[in-house]
Specification:
alpha+beta, Ribosomal Protein S8, Chain: A, domain 1, 6 helices, 4 strands
Length: 204
């Protein structure tokens, strides 16, 4: 094309001449940038330092699994009442530490009163207590008797042993049995109170 110089290729003589002239030349080493102290700067990879962007990102730590919930251990079942203790209580040779009379109470009130009484006896370190439930009476036994109160006492006589078998009560009571006639017979119960952890430590 006009206006442009054509590209000229070197002749064989020129190529040989150039190779002869440059046969002893060595390529110059690429100069490294110099910092303010005069030492050559090195790349982070040469220093063994990997840029933060190049470092593998650590996976986020998984939250620790919550410890498995353990159910509180249930108190052991009632043990048989010691017959020797029962005889001593009946003869007055063994002291009754406390008494609770449930006469005249409704079921709900009697339940709450019994539980509070047993918890207090355990906290005070009592060992043997008496629970009076009443025997209950038939409506025709006496005209001046209150039918509803007599019937309630009969219900408590049947319910109290069932309440004592519940875990909430077994944590306070080791054993129970029917009392001697002088203490109410079938209308009352001897109870052995379970020692609290505080009193168990003092006994060691």
């Amino acid at each position: 094309m006009e206006g442009r110089s054509r590209k000229r290729f070197l002749s064989e003589e020129e190529i040989e001449l150039w190779a002869h002239v440059t046969r002893h030349d060595e390529p110059l080493e690429r100069q490294r940038p110099i910092n303010a102290s005069g030492s050559a700067l090195t790349s982070p990879q040469q220093n063994g330092v990997v840029p933060a962007a190049a470092q593998p990102s650590a996976s986020p730590a998984k939250p620790a699994a919550p410890p498995p919930k353990t159910k509180p251990a249930l108190p052991p079942p009632h043990a048989p009442f010691d017959p020797r203790v029962s005889k001593r209580l009946a003869r007055g040779r063994h002291e009754i530490d406390a008494r609770l009379d449930l006469h005249g109470m409704r079921q709900q009130d009697a339940y709450v009163a019994l539980r509070r009484f047993l918890a207090r006896c355990q906290a005070q370190g009592f060992r043997h207590v008496l629970i009076i439930t009443g025997k209950g009476e038939k409506p025709g036994d006496a005209a001046d008797r209150d039918f509803w109160r007599a019937e309630e006492r009969g219900v408590l006589r049947r319910l109290v042993p069932h309440w004592l078998a519940e875990p909430n009560f077994r944590s306070h009571v080791v054993s129970f049995t029917e009392s001697a006639l002088k203490h109410g017979g079938a209308g009352a119960l001897y109870l052995t109170i379970r020692k609290s952890p505080r009193h168990q430590k003092h006994d060691r």
